[in-house]
Amino acid sequence: VYAGVLKKDLNLTATFSAYKNKIYKGKIESVASRVDAQTRSILARAKIDNENSEIIPGSLHECPASGTTTS
After folding, report:
1. Which residue from 32, 30, 27, 20 is spatially nearest to 61, judged by alpha carbons?
2. Minimal CA–CA distance to 25: which of 56, 59, 48, 54?
């Protein structure tokens, strides 16, 4: 996802290495204002449905954003 596309309320799906076959849904809650020059990454906070408490906060995951927002 390009930096210009990342914004609050952007829908996403996430997968975690511990649960490779399970897809979690969520949305972006906030996006940092700076790009890390060394890693070329942007910090973003997402709220992901975790009703069974399977995901530990700070877990590494993959999450392609869908490009749609909720109001």
Report:
1. 20
2. 48
Q: What is the pLDDT of residues 4-24, one digit of tens each?
A: 888 899 998 888 888 878 888
Specify the pTM: 0.69
Output DSSP code: residue 57: T
Task: Look at the block and give the residue holding tokens 């869908």.
Answer: 66
CB atoms within 10 A of CB 2: 7
Q: How many residues does the chain have?
A: 71
For residue 15, the 8-state DSSP code is E
> β-strand 10-16 against 19-31: which pairing, if any?
antiparallel
Contact 15, 23 (CB under 8 A): yes
